[in-house]
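User: DUF3592 domain-containing protein. Structure?
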Amino acid sequence: MNSRHNRMTNVGRKLVMFLGFLFIFVGYILAYEKGLPLLDRAKASKTWPTVEGVVLESRVESHRSSNSSSSTYSPHVVYRYQVEGKDFEGETVWFGNDVSTSDRTMSEETIRKYPVKQNITVYYDPADHAIAVLEPGVFKTTYFFYLFGWLFLGLGILMASSVLFRSLLRLFRGGAEMQTPAESAG
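Assistant: Predicted structure:
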């Protein structure tokens, strides 16, 4: 029974370690591959050049998962603008507006600001004219992926380090117990 318990304990440790590293990996991707570039782009957008554009589509999108009865909402705005004689279409109202929330009113307020056929000011990235935004700067939702990524990173680090710490503690305790009989014999 003791060997079965030890085997189950080892499997448990390996599982927690695996999940810890998986959380670290996912957290890194969310925070540093998605979140941080989004924050950098949002900050930079305040100094981007502008052109006139026009709203092509404007609606609230509803999202319902298959295992839930509740819905989340996000604004869907499509606009056209032209830079150096070339036409572009954009869908970004602000960096982070692709985050769905259960608050429909926020999406409805956004849609009211951008009705179809309305002329608008578009801020575009001078390095990549296909990247544009209607409301430059950083907003609360801009931080979503960065903070969510750090939540995963923190949990992963906590899980992995707890297993490593316990293993090191057992190693040192086992090493101290093994030294004691040898010291008393000498």
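Residues 49-135 form one domain. The beta strands are 50-64, 71-83, 86-90, 119-125, 128-133.
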